[in-house]
Write a structure and sequence with these properties.
homodimer; 100 residues; alpha+beta; Arc Repressor Mutant, subunit A; two-stranded antiparallel sheet; DNA-binding
DNA sequence: TTAGATGGTCAGGTTTTTCTGACTAATTGT
DNA sequence: ACAATTAGTCAGAAAAACCTGACCATCTAA
């Protein structure tokens, strides 16, 4: 993933390319989310693909994984600061899609 | 290409998915553009892929093909009204990419 | 203690996307 | 007449993305 890129759409497209990333990212917009919740909410998806997508989103610093040391430890994925910079783009897109 | 879609990013991603579409679209933002110009300006691309991408962008009504009946007839691709609705998204993205 | 949930990994196969090279046809310049 | 440019198409191969099913470890509830 070369971050050097003169085309901003290509940048977003690369960041969120793949069959499940946009949906994962969108669900993460609503707050921290867990692996199996994603798996259940994204219909048609599968463990492997979600796992790979999450790993890549982490590597791109759009999501971060947190292990919560509690009775039954559980793992959460949430937007990073960088991830949150994409929120206005999503809002803009929502607007555009409504208008079209 | 099912246009039904609850996730706007997924919508954009679908519209502009593929290795060359974002770059084609971006070049088209600067005005009508020709096949061989795209081919030359997008390095690493090839005839076949550009041709397929252009056809799909046309089918999605983001670009339109115009045959200009002049001495040597030539063909131009330009943004449609629908395509132009994506301009603010690109601007937003440019801003975000600068900030990141 | 056994079943079910969470959060994965791994190998292998299938599907989708992309690329290469050859070919076409119209037009223009030399 | 011949080469070059434009604007493609097509078949087949290669590469990338995705899916399935099996497996694993930890924990909890029955």
């Amino acid at each position: 993933m070369e971050s050097e890129n003169s085309c901003p759409a290509e940048y977003l497209l690369k960041m969120l390319s793949g069959k499940w990333k946009p949906q994962i990212f969108r669900l993460a917009l609503d707050g921290p989310i867990r692996f199996n919740t994603l798996l259940r909410q994204i219909e048609g998806s599968n463990k492997q693909s979600i796992a790979v997508a999450l790993k890549e989103l982490e590597e791109q610093s759009l999501l971060e994984k947190t292990i919560i040391q509690q009775k039954p430890l559980h793992i959460e994925y949430m937007l990073t600061e960088k991830g949150r910079t994409l929120i206005p783009v999503f809002q803009q897109l929502e607007h555009v899609v409504r208008v079209q």
